[in-house]
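I have been asked to look over a protein record a colleague put together. What it holds is a sequence and that sequence's fold in token form. Please read both lines and tell me whether the tokens look consistent with the sequence. I do not need a full report, just your reasoning and any doubts. This is what I was given:
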Amino acid sequence: MPTIGKGIVENLVGYAQKDLTVPLFTEARLAGRPVTLTEANAAARAWMAEVNAAVHSEIHAVPDERLATERGVLAPLPSLRLEIGPPPVTRKVDRLSCVRFASARYSVPNRLVGTTVRVVQDGGRLLITEPATGEVVADHELAAPGEARVLDAHYGGPRPAPSRGPRPKTTMEKQFCALGEPAAKFLVGAAAIGNTRLAGELETLLALAAAHGPQALVDALTRAVAFKRFRAEDVRSILATGTSAPTPVPAGGALVLDLPTPPAPASLDAYRLDEVTGTTTTPDDPTSTATGGNR
């Protein structure tokens, strides 16, 4: 389509005045009535429908038909809204669903991986928006260079805890882990305390399984894990103890007893010596034992 210059625009304005405005106001003046805004808009819409349905002499096409074919290639106009503050920048969301800004990383919803977002610094916050809709998809506090701001909600929930289960490789390790979960917990605990002789101790433990039976060894391993004993000698001692080893149980509730009410204490006069023996003694009595008389 040819470029529209100033002359073409002015010619179009003149054409609208001659073909629309002048006849409309002339008819109203002859009729002795004013032209209302509603009447003027209705006349303008009718005039536009008429002229846009005819073949244009410049483009040799009907404007309505040409507009319908050109709508598919028309792009939205840039926003004329005044922007206050630093201009926004664009960032591409990486495969970790994060963007980098000022040498720091900020998370965004994982549905935006591979897309481009706008990053705007607003005071001490960092706002991340979608360019198409302007929606704020992430709001983070500014981080120092090298730090990261990650929200679990951007990934559909908190990250699952890593699995620390054993990964048996040798035949002996596979045989031991085949005993079940107590054997796996025993291996993890032995590795945690830094047992450097684990390979040799596995051979001893498998020999104990052959001597006492797999189930007895599993019970011993369960007890060893409960008491944090991760040596082969500890398991051997548990097997040697057998069923005589006590099994601790959690403490129960408090024991409440209803104690009997003691009787009221007697008066001190009840413990006088004369009351107990039934005699009366005085300090002047020569036969009193208190004065050292006859015995």
